[in-house]
Design goal:
Elements (H helix, E strand, L loop, with lengths): L4 E2 L17 E10 L2 E11 L4 E5 L6 H9 L6 E6 L2 E2 L7 E4 L11 H6 L8 H14 L15 H13 L5 E5 L7 H17 L3 E5 L3 H7 L2 E7 L8 E8 L11 H13 L9
Parallel strand pairs: 4-9, 4-10, 7-8, 8-9
Antiparallel strand pairs: 1-11, 2-3, 2-5, 5-6, 10-11
Helix pairs in contact: 3-4, 6-7
This protein binds adenosine-5'-triphosphate and magnesium ion.
Length: 274
C-alpha cells in the first residue's frame, strides 16, 4: 500500500466551499441478496464538500453501495447517515446521476431540468434556478432543444443540471461519463469541477477510469473482495488520498505513480518503463 494510502476511517477536513454540502457516514454497511454476500463491513466517513471516487472490479458492488447511500436500497447490516441523521428510504438530501442521462424525450432540456426542482418551488424562482443551472453546465443556448436534438455530452449535462436542481447536499454519480467519447469525457470532468465549486455539494462518484478518479477525487476508495475469500463479499481494500489541489495536472508524476498502484489493486498490471 502506498504512503499516500490511509486507513479506511481517515477523513479530510471540511473544505471552505462546503456550505450546503453534507457529510456522509457509512458504518459496518453490508448487503446480502438471498444468500449471496455482495458487500460487508464498509466503514467510510465522507466530509461535507469532499469528492470521493469509488473504484472496483465489475460486479463488486459499487452501484449497490451508491443505492444504499441514496436510499434506493437498504443495507442488510450497518448504518448510513447523511449529516448525522439516518438514510431511511429515498433521501431527498441526495441526488443521483447515472451513465445514461434518463431524460424524458418529449420534454425540452429546460423542462427536463425543471423536473429536479423540489416540489412546491414557486414558478418564477424555479425558472430562474433552471436558467442558472443550464448556464452553469454550458447549455444556456440549448434550453429549448429536446434530448434527441443534442449530443450525448449535452444530454449528460442536462441530466447533471436536473440532479443539482434541488441543491442536494450529496450528489451520487454512477459512471456518469462512462458512455461518452474520450474528449467529451475530459471536458465533463472539468465541468464537474466547475459545478462543485459553484454548487457546494459532496460528490460520491463511481468510475472505471482510474485517471478520472485521480483527476477529480480527494480520495479514491478501492472496493473489492478478498481474493482468498471471494464469497465473503467486497469491502474497502484501500483508500488513497490524492495529493494536489484541483485542477490537477493530468500528466503529474505522482498521479502516474498512484495510477499504477490503483491498477495493481484492481488486478491490472500497468507496465511502465523505469
Ligand atoms: N437486486 C438485486 N438482487 C440480486 N442481486 C443483486 C441485486 N442488485 C445487485 N445484485 C448483485 O450484486 C452484485 C454487485 O452488483 P453491482 O451492480 O453493485 O456491481 P458494480 O460494482 O456496480 O458492477 P459494474 O461495475 O459492472 O457496474 C452483482 O453480483 C449483482 O448481481
Ligand atoms: Mg455498477
Amino acid at each position: 500500500m502506498s504512503t499516500a494510502s490511509t486507513s479506511p476511517s481517515a477523513t479530510l477536513s471540511q473544505p471552505s466551499s462546503s456550505a450546503g454540502a453534507l457529510g456522509v457516514r457509512l458504518s459496518g454497511v453490508g448487503r446480502t441478496f438471498d444468500s449471496k454476500v455482495v458487500l460487508r463491513d464498509v466503514d467510510l466517513d465522507i466530509a461535507a464538500g469532499e469528492i470521493v471516487a469509488l473504484i472496483g472490479a465489475s460486479g463488486c458492488g459499487k452501484s449497490t453501495l451508491l443505492r444504499q447511500i441514496s436510499g434506493l436500497d437498504q443495507p442488510s447490516t450497518g448504518r448510513i447517515t447523511i449529516d448525522g441523521s439516518p438514510v431511511a428510504g429515498i433521501d431527498l438530501r441526495c441526488s443521483v446521476g447515472f451513465q445514461e442521462p434518463r431524460l424524458l424525450p418529449w420534454r425540452s432540456l429546460e423542462h427536463n431540468t425543471e423536473l429536479g426542482l423540489p416540489r412546491g418551488t414557486a414558478k418564477g424562482e424555479g425558472r430562474e434556478r433552471v436558467r442558472e443551472l443550464l448556464r452553469l453546465v454550458g447549455l444556456g443556448h440549448a434550453s429549448g432543444l429536446r434530448p434527441r436534438q443534442v449530443s450525448g455530452g449535452m444530454a449528460q449535462r442536462a441530466s447533471l443540471a436536473r440532479a443539482l436542481a434541488r441543491r442536494p447536499g450529496v450528489l451520487v454519480l454512477d459512471e456518469p461519463f462512462g458512455a461518452l467519447d474520450a474528449l467529451t469525457r475530459l471536458q465533463m470532468q472539468d465541468l464537474l469541477l466547475d459545478v462543485h465549486s459553484a454548487e457546494p455539494t459532496t460528490i460520491i462518484l463511481v468510475t472505471h477510469d482510474v485517471d478520472e478518479a485521480l483527476y477529480l477525487a480527494d480520495r479514491v476508495v478501492l472496493l473489492g473482495a478478498d481474493p482468498q475469500a471471494p464469497a465473503d463479499g467486497a469491502t474497502i481494500r484501500s483508500i488513497t488520498v490524492v495529493p494536489g489541489a484541483r485542477p490537477r495536472d493530468r500528466g503529474d508524476a505522482t498521479l502516474a505513480h498512484l495510477r499504477v498502484e490503483l491498477l495493481d489493486g484492481l488486478g491490472v498490471s500497468a507496465h511502465h518503463s523505469s
